[in-house]
Write a structure and sequence with these properties.
Elements lengths: L13 H10 L1 H7 L4 H25 L38 H25 L8 H23 L9 H4 L1 H19 L6 H19 L3 H13 L21 E4 L2 H13 L5 H15 L3 H26 L2 E6 L2 E6 L4 E7 L5 E4 L3 H6 L2 E6 L8 E7 L2 H8 L3 E2 L8 H22 L6 H27 L3
Parallel strand pairs: 5-8
Antiparallel strand pairs: 1-2, 2-3, 3-4, 5-6, 6-7
């Protein structure tokens, strides 16, 4: 599959709207004395709207998106979610598996493009020509996007034939174009040449028509860009497991409390993420320097990040009902009304008790089921549930009970003492009066990663046998 959306060809009335909306900036370039900063402002506003609209469109995409080696989206675990939720009868279903793709493009803008843009606009001295041409161009581009979304994407059910990865190629390319124009604005003279700005408008118009419309002009441009693009798989059919014909013989409902308790370790691991770790350091620095306003803003953002992480974990495991249908175990989502995975009980699949730290701390239970076909990792999770033994008996599962070791106070005590030793000794050395502040800071930078690694291993060993 080529690097263009796999849409069904049809006549579209949006070709003319999109062409006119994108050609309007030429009026400002040729007769309105626009400079490169004015054009950049126009396309920056369009890029923001394209990113937000693209994120919304990606949620409706029905086709599956293949993985990209070395790339991992936020809330990646939701990609294994099956089924969709229809917010309104007049709208198509929203698919939770597409949420990671929407967050990835919005996150890139929020963490990089937006701060750089604000800093650039605050430092430039060249005035931006605010005129009727700018207002008309912005309005026309926004109307064109809205018309394409309503008429083409929703009206002709284009969402059935595209994937989230395909949809988000468009805002990604426009983002790159805005960055290129920004570099031109920073390096060029106050007024870039008419040929340069006009050429940028023409190329951008061709790309917009090829991606936003499915009319005859669009198909011609798509074929031309197709020759310049590499073969890449951007979409594939999304497999959906079929429910067995047998009736439900027994079922186990997940306890919301158990799921929320099980999300604690996953939520805390979010702090390892570079962006979250930098935000956490920034909040600590703001509090230490008594910049309470910035510290409060950072705490609000951190709270939102952790809340989204908990909601993602709950959406993955908290709405599941485990059903025994004949000789089959089914994980059925009661909100999305769709089976998530199906495992024959008497097969090569292995049912093992997971030695999860939250289960040991909060007396919950989780199973790891390996050898499951039609899943990327061939492994699925059962639980966490409040009473694992009762769930195993109710569903009649062949569980191996040697996967979770018994409590060992000797291991817990030894690991705790060693962890305290590796924590206190470096602090005493760094706090010595014979060590200067510069030496202490340098030593902390050098030895902190090593000691943190040791302390982490010891704490894990302690909690795994608590």
């Amino acid at each position: 599959m080529r690097g263009v959306p796999s849409t069904v060809p049809h006549q579209s009335s949006t070709d003319l709207i999109i062409i006119v909306a994108n050609i309007l900036p030429l009026i400002g370039v040729f007769i309105g004395d626009w400079n490169v900063w004015t054009l950049l402002l126009l396309y920056w506003i369009e890029a923001v709207s394209t990113v937000l609209l693209g994120a919304l469109k990606s949620l409706f995409a029905k086709q599956g998106s293949p993985d990209v080696v070395g790339q991992r989206e936020p809330l990646h675990e939701l990609r294994q979610k099956r089924g969709g939720w229809r917010p309104l009868p007049s709208l198509p279903p929203l698919y939770p598996r597409n949420v990671p793709f929407a967050l990835s493009i919005v996150g890139v803008w929020g963490s990089t493009i937006l701060p750089i843009s604000v800093l650039s606009w605050a430092t430039i001295e060249t005035p931006v020509a605010m005129s009727w041409e700018v207002a008309v161009s912005v309005g026309a581009l926004l109307i064109a996007h809205a018309a394409e979304f309503s008429v083409d994407y929703l009206g002709t059910k284009q969402y059935e034939d595209v994937s989230a990865r395909e949809i988000l190629q468009r805002p990604t390319q426009l983002t790159m174009g805005v960055m290129l124009l920004g570099i031109l604005a920073l390096t060029a003279s106050q007024l870039a040449g008419i040929a340069v700005l006009g050429g940028f408008v023409v190329v951008k118009t061709a790309i917009s028509v090829s991606w936003e419309s499915t009319g005859p002009i669009s198909r011609t441009l798509q074929a031309w860009f197709d020759r310049l693009s590499e073969d890449r798989e951007l979409s594939r059919p999304q497999p959906e497991p079929d429910l067995p014909d047998e009736e439900v013989q027994s079922r186990v409902t997940v306890s919301p409390k158990s799921v929320l308790l099980g999300s604690i370790s996953t939520t805390l691991l979010t702090a390892i993420n570079r962006g979250v770790a930098l935000l956490l350091l920034g909040v600590c620095a703001a509090m230490l320097t008594r910049h309470l306003v910035w510290g409060g803003v950072g705490l609000v953002v951190l709270s939102c990040v952790f809340a989204v992480r908990i909601a993602s974990y709950y959406l993955r495991y908290g709405t599941i009902e485990y059903q025994r249908r004949g000789d089959t175990l089914v994980a059925y989502d009661t909100v999305l009304k769709a089976p998530q995975w199906i495992v024959p009980v008497h097969s090569r699949a292995k049912f093992e008790i997971k030695n999860a730290i939250p289960d040991r701390l909060f007396d919950t239970g989780t199973l790891r089921i390996s050898g499951v076909k039609a899943t990327p990792t061939n492994t699925v999770q059962f639980g966490p549930v409040a009473d694992l033994d009762s769930a195993i008996e109710t569903l009649g599962l062949p569980v191996r009970h040697d996967g979770r070791p018994d409590q060992d106070p000797a291991v817990v005590g030894a690991a705790l003492i060693l962890a305290l030793f590796f924590t206190v000794v470096p602090l005493l050395l760094l706090g010595s009066s014979q060590v200067s502040r510069a030496e202490a800071a340098g030593g902390l930078v050098l030895i902190a990663p090593f000691f943190l690694m040791l302390i982490g291993v010891l704490l894990y060993a302690m909690l795994a046998r608590i």
